[in-house]
Design goal:
This protein has one domain: 3-Layer(aba) Sandwich (Aminopeptidase). It has a five-stranded mixed beta sheet, with helices on both faces. The chain has three helices and five strands; from the N terminus they run βαβββαβα. It is of the alpha+beta class.
C-alpha cells in the first residue's frame, strides 16, 4: 500500500467531504441512485485518503442493544482504482480498535449476497454470516 494513504475518523457526516465522497461513490455504484437518505449526520466515518483525495470509507453508527453497545456498519466503499492494496482491511482494523475503546460488544453489518469478494474479506478478518435477508419488490408484483 502506498505511503500516501492516511486513515482518519470523523464523529459526524454532516457536510463532511467524506460524506460527499460516499454519496458520489454510491450514486455511481447504484444505477437507481444512492440510498443516501439512510445516512444521517450523526453517523460516524472512518476514511482513507491518498493525498487530498478520499479513497475509502466505512460509515457506521453506534446502537444500544439491551444494556450493551454495538457498531453497525451502514456502508463501506473503496474507490475501484485503490482496491486490492489493503485499504479496507486497515480501515476495518481501526474500527475494531475504536470498538474496543468504546467497550462495544459486536460489529454488525450487511453484505450483498452477490458481493462474494466482500464476503471473503469479511470472513478473512473474522466476521461470520449470521442471517439471510429476503426482499420483495412490491411495485413489480403482478400477482394481486
Amino acid at each position: 500500500m502506498s505511503d500516501d494513504i492516511k486513515i482518519g475518523f470523523s464523529h459526524s457526516l454532516d457536510g463532511s467531504l467524506a460524506f460527499q465522497f460516499a454519496v458520489k461513490a454510491y450514486s455511481d455504484f447504484y444505477s437507481e441512485g444512492i440510498n443516501a437518505l439512510r445516512l444521517k449526520g450523526d453517523n460516524k466515518v472512518i476514511y482513507a485518503m491518498n493525498g487530498s483525495q478520499y479513497v475509502g470509507v466505512i460509515i457506521f453508527e453506534r446502537i444500544t442493544v439491551g444494556e450493551g453497545q454495538n457498531l453497525n456498519i451502514i456502508k463501506s466503499y473503496v474507490d475501484p482504482e485503490h482496491r486490492g492494496v489493503g485499504i479496507w482491511e486497515i480501515m476495518w482494523k481501526e474500527l475494531v480498535e475504536m470498538a474496543k475503546l468504546w467497550n462495544v460488544s459486536k460489529i454488525t453489518g450487511r453484505v450483498s449476497s452477490k458481493n462474494t469478494k466482500m464476503q471473503a474479506k469479511c470472513e478473512a478478518v473474522g466476521r461470520k454470516a449470521v442471517s439471510i435477508n429476503y426482499e420483495f419488490e412490491v411495485l413489480k408484483d403482478k400477482s394481486v
